TrEMBL record:
This is Flavin reductase (DIM6/NTAB) family NADH-FMN oxidoreductase RutF. Signal peptide: none annotated. The keyword Oxidoreductase applies. The lineage of its organism: Bacteria, Pseudomonadati, Pseudomonadota, Gammaproteobacteria, Cellvibrionales. Belongs to the non-flavoprotein flavin reductase family. It holds the Pfam family Flavin_Reduct. It comes from the Bacteria. Residues 12-156 form the Flavin reductase like domain. One of its GO terms (molecular function) is FMN binding. It comes from Sinobacterium caligoides. SUPFAM superfamilies: FMN-binding split barrel. PANTHER family: FLAVIN REDUCTASE (PTHR30466), FLAVIN-DEPENDENT MONOOXYGENASE, REDUCTASE SUBUNIT HSAB (PTHR30466:SF11). Keywords: Oxidoreductase.
Amino acid sequence: MSFDSREFRNALGRFPTGVCVITTTPEGGKPMGMTVNSFAALSLEPALVLWSIQTNSECYAVFEKAKGFTVNVLSEEQVDVSNAYAKKGDHDLKEGEFRLGKSGQPVLKGAITSFECTMSAQHDGGDHVIIVGEVIEMDNSPTGRPLVFHSGKYEQLR
C-alpha cells in the first residue's frame, strides 16, 4: 500500500453520502441509535439494504445481536439529531423523538424516509461488519431534503 490510512479516509470522504441514524431496541434495554453514513440499497427483490459498523464501536454488540433495526434517513434540518447520536456514550433515544414502528422497532420522527428491517445477514468486512436487513416496513415522505456529508462536513443539495 503506497498511502496511509488517513489519506485513504480523506479520499473516501470525497464521496458525498447521506446521513442516517440506525435505531433498535436491545433485548431488555432501552431504544438506542447511532449515526452512520454507510447506508446503501442492495436489492429490490427481495427488498434488502445494508450498512456497516466498526467492530470496535461501543454499539457493535447491540447490533450484532439485534433481530431488527430501522434505517432513518435524516433531513437537512436534522443536523442536531445526527450530532447527538454520533457522540460516544450517549446512544439512548430521547423521549418524544421517536415512535414505535409497525415492526416494533423505533422510528425517528422527522426522518424523510425510514426502513424497518429484520436482520438478514452479517458479513465480515475487515475492521467493519456489513449488516444486511430485509425491509419489512417503509415510511417515505414525499417532501424534504436529505442531510448530506462530504469531505468531513455537512452539505446541502442545491
